[in-house]
Design brief:
The complex is a heterodimer. In chain A, strands 2, 4, 5, 9, 10 and 11 form a 6-stranded mixed β-sheet that branches. The termini of chain A are far apart. In chain A, a hairpin with a 5-residue loop joins β9 and β10. Chain A is 0% helix and 58% strand. Chain A is built from no helices and 11 strands. Chain B is mainly β. In chain B, strands 2, 4, 5, 6, 9, 10 and 11 form a 7-stranded mixed β-sheet that branches. Classes of the chains: A mainly beta, B mainly beta. Chains A and B meet through β4, β5, β9 and β10 of A and β5, β9 and β10 of B.
């Protein structure tokens, strides 16, 4: 069964810094990996989807990479802003079926 | 922009009561899901639904749970006899194909007292 972990669990940075969030998964035979943002008490907002044939995806200040062989994905956030403060979740598919979520990284960007 | 909508946003129910959580997936999507998140814990898969039948379910999705697509737009999750441990945020999601980007609703916070 697919298992997903994320490090760090929490991260606090000053505004303007570039940062990297890490996601690891145990089963490298994934089809997709998706990154989400979750604000406190709110739903999940899709940020980026990386398909297994892709190595990275970019959206604005966000860049996500995927290395299936090592079972890792990273989410790079450039020039962080206080509005980026949220919990970031990665989710890897479980044998092409449902998504298995990591525990998230709670990001605080300080003004 | 199309979105997944869920109602109600918050529901309080007494233990043993039945609840129905409602979702309107994105209109052209074919695959529908329910996930839940107990406070402070990971988001967990409950069930997936395609072509008017359950395609997969987790161990959590026992006989107390059922899903239905009663018409062309709604997708519901029913909990027959709620327990205290059913208290969680329940998320509905949909996608066009099973391996596509999944879009989630804002969730229904269920509190069982």
């Amino acid at each position: 069964k697919q298992e997903v972990t994320q490090i760090p669990a929490a991260l606090s940075v000053p505004e303007g810094e570039n940062l990297v969030l890490n996601c690891s998964f145990t089963d490298s035979a994934i089809y997709n990996l998706q990154w989400f943002r979750q604000d406190p008490g709110k739903g999940l907002t899709s940020l980026l989807l990386i398909q297994s044939s892709q190595r990275e995806q970019t959206s604005g200040r966000l860049n996500a990479s995927l290395d299936k062989s090592s079972g890792r994905s990273t989410l790079y956030i450039a020039a962080s802003q206080p509005g980026d403060s949220a919990t970031y979740l990665c989710a890897a598919d479980n044998y092409g079926q449902n998504f298995v979520f990591g525990p998230g990284t709670r990001l605080s960007v300080l003004p | 922009e199309p979105e997944v909508t869920q109602t109600p946003s918050h529901q309080v129910t007494q233990m043993g009561q039945e609840v129905i959580l409602r979702c309107v997936p994105i209109s052209n999507h074919l695959y529908f899901y329910w996930y839940r998140q107990i406070l402070g814990q990971k988001v967990e898969f409950l069930v997936s639904f395609y072509n008017n039948e359950i395609s997969e379910k987790s161990e959590i999705f026992d006989d107390q749970f059922s899903v239905e697509r009663p018409d062309g737009s709604n997708f519901t999750l029913k909990i027959r006899s709620t327990k205290l441990e059913d208290s969680a945020m329940y998320f509905c999601a949909s996608n066009l194909r099973g391996l596509d980007e999944a879009f989630f609703g804002q969730g229904t916070r269920l509190t069982v007292v």
